[in-house]
Amino acid sequence: MLDSLAEFKFVQSFRIPIENVDDLRFLLERPNGSADKYIDDAKLIDISKTGVGFSSFERLSVGSAHNISIQYKRFHLDIHGKIIRAFSDPENNEKIIYGFQFDQDEDISTFLETYINNFNQDRLKSCIVNLALKGPNSTTMEGFEMFSLILSLFKDITKYGNRQEFLENMLSEVTRLMNAQRASIFLINTETSELEAVCALGADKKLLKFDYRLGIAGSVFTTGVALNIDVVNDHTRFTDSFDQKTGFQTKSIICNPISNREDKIIGVIEVLNKRDEDRFTVDDEKIMKVLSLIFSSVYHSYNPISETSQIRRFSGPFDREYALVGTSKYVDEIRSSIIKLKDIDSPVLIQGEMGVGKSLLSKILHFEGARGLQCYEVINCGGKDLTSLRIEIFGDEKNISKLEKCKGGTLLLKNIQFLPLNDQEKLFNILHERRIPGSKISLDVRTIVATHAPIEKLVDEGKFHRGLFDYISTANVKIAPLRRRIEDMDELISFMLKVECKKQGLLLKSFSASVVKSMKDYHWPGNIEELRKCIERAVLYNPKTHIITSINSLTLPVFDVSKSELPLAQEVPQLHDPRLKLKDRVLLLERQLILTEVKRNFGNKSHAAKNMGISREALRKKMLQSQEVLDRLGEKERKYHLEIDSNGANENIVPIKRAA
After folding, report:
1. Do 215 and 286 have their domain in common?
2. Nearest in space to 254 (alpha carbons), one of 285, 223, 213
3. Model pLDDT, residue 131
4. What's this model's pTM, rounded to 2 decimal places?
5. How far is the C-alpha of 660 from the C-alpha of 234, rounded, in Å?
6. Would you give the distance in Å from CA 262 to the centre of its chain?
7. Where is the domain boundary, 538, 559, 580?
8. 278 pLDDT tier (thresholds 50, 70, 90)
9. Could you give the count of Cα atoms lying within 13 Å of 469 in the half-sphere of its Cβ?
10. Whole-number mean pLDDT of the chain?
11. 246: left (phi over 0), alpha (psi -120 to 50) or beta
């Protein structure tokens, strides 16, 4: 039996202070066999439903059994129990404060009711106020009590040489103190990505293993949020497959996470079925918080890393099928978004240039989230004819809609800007009402939209349905282009080289420093996808080379650093005009860079200025100064528009052609 948990229950109980005017008589018998039957100086301090507190100058052993007598008016109680705690009185070191716990079969409810009913109005009011306003360790005495409790917890944790014995004793005490039927401790098995019971009371632990995303335990493990539910009122969150497997009927559950020293959630403690009540109490929640800390200290060094783990915190990026590589602030922001968004059902709008990894992010949100075991489907609105597209989205007499097919899963809509306006309105109504017209099935699908188009601008121009935009942009994630993530290049190159060498059955290769520098200097208009194709070809065309020192001509169509100069040279032909001074050429070059950044920020000049590290006023002045240079050359002001080709593959800034 664990004394520390009994102490915690005693400390947390509502203890009524005893006053001298109460005329309450208290007698404490010495242990069996003592010559003097009673301890004369034992003085009652407080009383609760589960025990009493008393003081004495005599030294008594914690764990020793005693009989006590309490007499008040017509009541006379003879109660058996044991001392569960002892600490020095902070006002008198010679005096000891003891905690005495009644045996389980002792019930003094009627006595307490009569005792409290005899309080005068002021005393009753004072008790209620103190109970409502009491803070943690609000008196010196309570501070000593808590310190004593911490020491007791530490002794319980360290006295067991056998961890399994400690766990079993702990769970036995948990079910007794919380008046519950079952208790289990689950830890993650990263090889199978399952939560497995390492100790279970009232069940065969071999039967208790399941995918880490399932059930109440799975929810607590993935989110880190403790849950206290009853099956009747929270039936939608409860999975009855475990009861069918074990033959046990669950009525109420309380579950808390267990963490290691790196603050990673590695498992959960779960307690089932509060006896005689529909739900676990607030006091039970307090006990579970302490238990969570205890088990976290027991498993502080548990940190299983696995090459096959689907769980991000227990695998390196090289080991995951869907890896998000990098340490830049942009990648850290995306990782933060993943944690916030993966387990909720809200739609997500992912925006970014072609090839930045929008589809990868959608897969991570699905497979690492609460819907990861269900269906994942993709509809590319720009990749097929309109008839086929409508069948995929809305279905027909012969084909089921992918919205219905993805029951409990996720649907990725790519390039949604190519969907006609009338179909956008129809899709919005379906998603909003969660039902396809003529169908009796209620939709249970999470929608993720990925696009490189400036949807906000299209909405303002009337080219995209505003209601649909408001729906899909409930959560919004923007992925930065590779040229703004140069600090991630080393990790990306290393990761892609390892993947490609393994794919082609070759020993691990590397690039020379000069090749890596050339890669970092290139502007990568195709972003991550272009980098991947470049490395794929570099490995393919250098099968016997351990260190790749150059990119040969066969790879140049994908990777050619010299081409990085062409876009600016084409857009600013005046750079080579001998009539212009250097400072004027610099102004025109800055003008083109500003226009490109404004376009990337969908026309928002303030955001463009901030991203370029200048003020909004500085941006305005540079544009005016460069315009003066153009005017001196006898050119009219150049205005630009965004041109997207029919399949959405290319974006260019081109001048508006004006009539002569």
Report:
1. yes
2. 285
3. 55
4. 0.53
5. 72
6. 15
7. 559
8. confident
9. 18
10. 80
11. alpha
